[in-house]
Design goal:
The chain is of the alpha/beta class and about 280 residues long. It has two domains: about 5-110, Spore Coat Polysaccharide Biosynthesis Protein SpsA, Chain A; about 115-255, Spore Coat Polysaccharide Biosynthesis Protein SpsA, Chain A, CATH 3.90.550.10. Helices cover about 35% and strands about 20% of the residues. β8 (about 165) and β9 form a beta hairpin. The radius of gyration is 18 Å and the shape is globular.
Length: about 280
């Protein structure tokens, strides 16, 4: 185990792109009267309150988002408009921060219901082992009822929801848009006292050690990454260790991502149901 850090080498970057094809201006869309980006920034500020030495910033290519950041008192870094992915934008921002950043968490600007506990646990995990940590990402073990809901949703949108296989140490062995593992003798498992299934759902939140993020952005798209549409498979295909962080939060809260204008209504319903975020 490496020596603990005080957080000064950690950055929490929020990539927020204005020019979404399906939902232009998405980070500025209002959810129950507050901008989506404002809600994400509140999560970042909560993380900084718990870990005062970390750096937080929004990374954007658009002046309209920069102006909004000024209104909500959020540090903002202007990045290239040529960044192909959120990870590229995160790295661009980190390279412009005047600090020796060694670990970076990318908090998506369209994920207003990301649990604070996910970020908190990722920061703590890195601080406890800064030399050996390469990549961290959170997962949730599904209850049987939640697994049934995921199966039903995949009948309509088969490429929504990602599952993960992990080893005994919590390292990710694989991720898939299919539900893995397949479960033989499921009825027997369901009849046991354990309410949880053996399936883990992945949250699209990553913490990268600086050198790993630089390598990741430079590598070409992986074969299985292209097939599945999952960028984390590029890491596994290149031999990078991904340590998972297990969370215990309401699944409906985590799944309330916003990809289209229609999702705003659903997000407001989730906010009404769950109230303040964990």
């Amino acid at each position: 185990m490496g020596s603990a850090t005080n957080g000064a080498d950690i950055a929490l970057i929020i990539p927020a792109r204005y020019g979404s094809t399906r939902f232009p201006g998405k980070p500025l869309a209002k959810i129950a009267g507050q901008s989506m980006l404002g809600r994400v920034v509140d999560i970042a500020k909560k993380a900084k309150a718990a870990h005062p030495n970390i750096h937080i910033a929004v990374a954007t290519e658009d002046q309209r988002i920069a102006e909004h950041c000024a209104k909500i008192d959020a540090p903002c870094i202007m990045t290239s408009d040529q960044c192909p992915t959120g990870s590229d934008r995160v790295l661009d921002a980190v390279q412009k921060i005047d600090a020796d950043i060694r670990f970076t968490i990318g908090l998506q600007g369209d994920a207003p219901f990301t649990p604070f506990t996910a970020i908190d646990k990722m920061i703590t995990a890195y601080q406890n082992a800064p030399e050996t940590t390469e990549v961290l990402t959170p997962i949730i073990r599904l209850r049987w009822a939640e697994l049934d809901e995921l199966r039903e949703s995949k009948k309509i949108t088969p490429f929504s929801g990602t599952t993960a296989i992990i080893n005994a140490s919590g390292q990710a062995l694989w991720f898939s848009k299919n539900i893995i593992p397949a479960i033989r003798k499921e009825d027997k498992l369901r009849s046991s006292a354990d309410e949880f299934s053996p399936v883990h759902q992945h949250l699209g939140l990553y913490g990268f050690r600086r050198d790993i993020l630089e390598k990741f952005v430079a590598w070409p798209q992986g074969h299985y990454e292209e097939l599945e549409g999952l960028e984390q498979l590029r890491l596994i295909e290149n031999g990078i260790s991904i340590q998972t962080i297990k969370l215990d939060v309401p699944l409906g809260l985590v799944q309330a991502g916003v990809d289209s204008p229609e999702d705003i209504v659903r997000a407001e319903g989730v906010l009404k149901k769950y109230g303040a975020l964990a």
